[in-house]
Design brief:
The complex is a heterodimer of chains A (about 350) and B (about 500). Chain A has about 350 residues and is mainly alpha-helical. Chain A has 13 helices and no strands. In chain A, about 70% of the residues lie in helices and about 0% in strands. Chain B has about 500 residues and is of the alpha/beta class. Chain B folds into 2 domains: about 230 residues, Rossmann fold (3-Layer(aba) Sandwich), CATH 3.40.50; about 130 residues, Rossmann fold (3-Layer(aba) Sandwich). Chain B contains 16 helices and 23 strands. In chain B, strands 13, 16, 19, 20, 21, 22 and 23 form a 7-stranded mixed β-sheet that branches. In chain B, a hairpin with a 2-residue loop joins strand 21 and strand 22. The chains are: A mainly alpha (about 350), B alpha/beta (about 500). Chains A and B meet through helix 8 and helix 9 of A and helix 10, helix 11 and strand 18 of B.
Chain lengths: ~350, ~500
């Protein structure tokens, strides 16, 4: 029960602190909150954008939660997303037949494989040499960012792009066709729907998911039963890598259409918060992803409408994560003043 | 004279169970008072209420005649009430002295405290090296740490929850001397135990609980153990039937020249361990805790593997290099000493814990867990072993220690093993259930399984084993035929080689 209550309490506290923050900046808190959380959803375009941004968050969080349940801490989904986007874009740009109907499917595959390959590095190092996967995944994110930067500034730069650091636009067959050309929402959200279902099936029903939850909750019991720790590490990291890689593919083949140095507003990091907001549960993650997406939208909206800095989005994310961890802490522990002793 | 502790009409309910129902008792200063009862009878709950770790729904607690209104462990300790839990509350990664320092108020001086610990532990006959890390200590040694921690605070009332279950006969004698010494100094002692002979030897009075109610009070020294047992169990005790062993021709488990380095610097190295267990017999491994049992058991269970496959053969197949899962596929089942976190996943429900090792019995199909079958499996174990639990949905950590043990033993036996490896099968389990578990082990072996029992309880080993091995400092003795040996011979083998003097032996002496 309290596991469900904690995210709700955290959201309420975040709103309260957010209001105080707006008031301190000299804005009417209620009006600002309205502009932040309600106004973005009051148009069809707003709703389209809401789902468009929620989709990668939910997709990545589902993949990450598989590992988190087994105490495998993949912090580098952002890097795996970039790796997936690069590979998918490469397939889209350089596949011999740019009109092949198989192109999108190949790009999904390439994105997933690249994300998994990027995650396989920390998995190998952890399984074989017991390195800390938190550090390795995080640092590989910077490697991926630099790799992307090199590609778009160098070999993959669009010759007809006026020297902008970006690739050529993907051919039409390499793009998800939007449901309606007035809006950006496209069928890639079905990939997310499938991921949510798979995550639920894996975590709640599968034997492998069961083994991973044992590894997370009681490593000695996993060893007692003969479940291999290394398979939990591999599956945990590869699931996150595949999900992030597909999310990167969906960004490139969806709203972006090409690679540029900045392809993600931090989906890979925000998805970590989404996974925990959703209590590592498939349906909770859907709700968490929708909330986090709203934070991204609201941040843009108040930047445009009220001239507030866009960093507010990050601040809200940070406050939310802080309160989530804090409420969890206070649910499991109680502070007490110790009697003073001589 | 005012009682040191008086309970009046204590009631406590948890969802689904009435743990304590109208319990009253009183304990005088210097009295050693036994609380007897089966698992789930409400003993542990009652102790938590006395100690303040749980609050009664109704009823009153008086200490030295003063009503204790609302209290918690800190205020209990301020009153001089100390408790040694059945599940120890020690930080594994730090040393003994640091653990104890953490529980003491105010600033601390580790060197002075270490000296105090050494001194006190020697004085009460339970030597401990204060600089050792807790995760390297055996269960028996951890218990000493808990007891010494309490003694450092000069308690007025000491609560001990099944303190002798992991001690050798000699160590029990020492502990009893300690407790009598404490009682003579005026400290009252609440002693929870399932061992009736010990209660009769040690305790001045006893309160017997069954299903959360007081079913009788007695002067144990003037009451027969049969009468006490009947008050506890409420019916006739089952009798053990141990038919003659019919060992098979070829050994099911064969250990040959098994040598292994210690896990860490406090571990014990195994040296040339060789023995065999045949189908149809029970072999017991006796020894004082911390003499290499943990290492041997981990190597036998496959939790730790060995480079030489031939060092351990299961059913004739070289197995020392195989992991636990592969050995289970060869027909091995295993009950470890630690229940929570090793034999069971604490926050998981019992049906989930049934999947832990029962997944080969058709619970998993096409990679998916069949929850209905898992629940049916768990239900079967609960019914057959009379596990007191709120059904298959109850979490493992909500069960009392003995009930969880029954569940784990039951789960492993339900796998119909060819080789059954059991560590401390009845530790913390009450008389009735212990007899049932022992009888099940005997029946299992007589049905053709090879059973290896690792236990620190000699009585248990003598009751059910056909042959006995003794482990001492990582070496295993040649087998002794149970009918041709006796406790003295085994006791000597357990200790005589331990008289070699090395620094680390300090905590192994008894």
């Amino acid at each position: 029960m309290m596991r469900v209550a904690a995210p709700v309490i955290a959201v309420v506290l975040t709103l309260a602190v957010g209001s105080a923050l707006f008031a301190a900046l000299g804005y009417d808190p209620l009006a600002t909150l309205h502009a932040f959380f309600v106004a973005p959803l009051s148009s069809v375009n707003g709703l389209s954008e809401w789902l468009l941004k929620a989709s990668p968050l939910i997709l990545i969080a589902c993949g990450l939660a598989v590992g988190f349940r087994a105490n495998v801490w993949n912090i580098g989904a952002e890097g795996q997303l970039i790796a997936g986007a690069i590979a998918a874009c490469g397939v889209g740009l350089f596949y011999p037949n740019p009109e092949s109907p198989m192109l999108l499917a190949l790009m999904v595959l390439a994105g997933a494989l690249a994300g998994m390959a990027w995650a396989a590095i920390p998995a190998f190092l952890r399984a074989r040499m017991n390195t800390n996967e938190i550090l390795v995944t995080l640092m590989l994110t910077y490697v991926a960012t630099l790799l992307l930067s090199w590609l778009v500034h160098g070999p993959w730069r669009d010759p007809a792009g006026f020297n902008y650091p970006q690739t050529a636009l993907l051919p039409a067959a390499a793009m998800f066709e939007p449901f309606d050309y007035a809006y950006r929402l496209n069928p890639s959200i079905f990939l997310t729907v499938v991921a949510v279902f798979l995550m639920w099936l894996f975590a709640d029903r599968s034997f492998m998911g069961y083994k991973m939850s044992v590894s997370g909750a009681a490593p000695l019991a996993a060893r007692y039963a003969g479940f291999r720790e290394s398979s939990a590490v591999w599956i945990g990291l590869l699931a996150g890598g595949a999900a992030a890689g597909i999310a990167g593919m969906a960004e490139v083949a969806g709203p972006l259409g090409q690679l540029s140095p900045q392809i993600s507003p931090g989906y890979g990091f925000a998805a970590i918060i989404v996974a925990f907001l959703g209590r590592l549960n498939a349906f909770g993650i859907v709700l968490g992803g929708l909330l986090m997406s709203l934070l991204f939208l609201g941040g843009e909206a108040i930047q445009m409408n009220l001239g507030l800095p866009s960093a507010l989005t990050r601040i809200f994310q940070g406050i939310l994560l802080f309160f989530l961890l804090a409420t969890d802490f206070f649910i499991f522990y109680r502070l007490r003043r110790l009697p003073e002793h001589a | 004279m005012i009682p040191r502790l008086e309970l009046r009409n204590i009631c406590k309910s948890y969802p689904g169970v009435v743990a304590n129902d109208d319990i009253s008792l009183s304990i005088m200063p210097g009295e050693i008072h036994a609380v007897l009862g089966e698992n789930g009878a409400g003993k542990s709950t009652l102790m938590k209420i006395i100690y303040g770790a749980a609050q009664a729904d109704s009823g009153e607690i008086y200490c030295d005649g003063r009503l204790i209104a609302a209290h918690d462990p800190a205020s209990s300790r301020a009153l001089g009430i100390e408790m040694v839990y059945q599940h120890f509350a020690l930080f594994e990664s730090v040393t003994v002295v640091e653990n104890i320092a953490l529980s003491l108020p105010g600033r601390f001086d580790l060197d002075a405290l270490a000296a105090q610990i050494t001194d006190l532990s020697q004085r009460y006959g339970m030597p401990i090296d204060p600089r050792r890390r807790v995760h390297d200590l055996s269960v028996g040694e951890r218990q000493r740490v808990e007891i010494v921690r309490c003694l450092l605070r000069s308690p007025k009332l000491l609560i001990l929850d099944e303190p002798t279950s992991v001690l050798t006969p000699q160590a029990v004698v020492k502990l009893f001397e300690t407790l009598r010494q404490l009682a003579a100094e005026g400290c009252s002692i609440v002693y929870i135990s399932h061992k009736l002979d010990e209660v009769q030897e040690l305790c001045d009075s006893a309160t017997v609980l069954r299903n959360g109610r007081v079913t009788g009070t007695a002067k144990p020294k003037q009451t027969t153990s049969l009468e006490l047992a009947r008050m506890m169990v409420g019916s006739q005790l089952p009798e053990m039937h141990v038919s003659p062993a019919m060992p098979g021709e070829t050994p099911v488990l064969e250990v040959r020249g098994l040598t292994a380095a210690p896990r860490d610097r406090y571990g014990v190295a195994l040296e040339g361990v060789s023995f065999a267990v045949h189908g149809g017999e029970i072999v017991g491994l006796a020894g004082i805790s911390g003499n290499g049992q943990a290492e041997l058991v981990a190597l036998l269970s496959g939790e730790r593997t060995h480079a030489d496959p031939d060092a351990i053969r299961i059913g004739g197949k070289p197995s020392a290099h195989l992991g636990a899962g592969q050995r289970r596929r060869l027909g091995m089942a295993f009950v470890p000493e630690e229940r929570l976190g090793r034999g069971a996943v604490p926050p998981h429900a019992l049906w989930q814990n049934a999947v832990l090792t029962g997944h080969r019995t058709g619970i998993v199909r096409n990679g998916l867990v069949d929850r209905g079958k898992a629940a049916a499996f768990a239900k079967g174990v609960i019914d057959r072993f009379k596990v007191k639990a709120n059904g298959p949905q109850a979490s493992a950590q909500s069960l009392s220690g003995g009930n969880l043990q029954k569940f784990i033993v039951g789960r492993e036996i339900a796998l119909a093993p060819k080789l059954f490896l059991v560590s401390q099968p009845t530790w913390g389990v009450d008389v009735g259930a212990a007899a049932f578990i022992r009888q099940t082990l005997v029946d299992l072996s007589r049905a053709g399984a090879a059973v290896l029992v690792v236990s620190e309880e000699l009585d248990e080993l003598f009751e059910i084993c056909d042959r006995l091995l003794v482990i001492c400092q990582g070496k295993v003795s040649p087998p002794l035929i149970r009918r041709q040996t006796n406790r003295e011979e085994v006791g000597l083998l357990m200790t005589n080689r331990a008289s070699g003097t090395k620094g680390k032996d300090l905590a192994l002496q008894d």
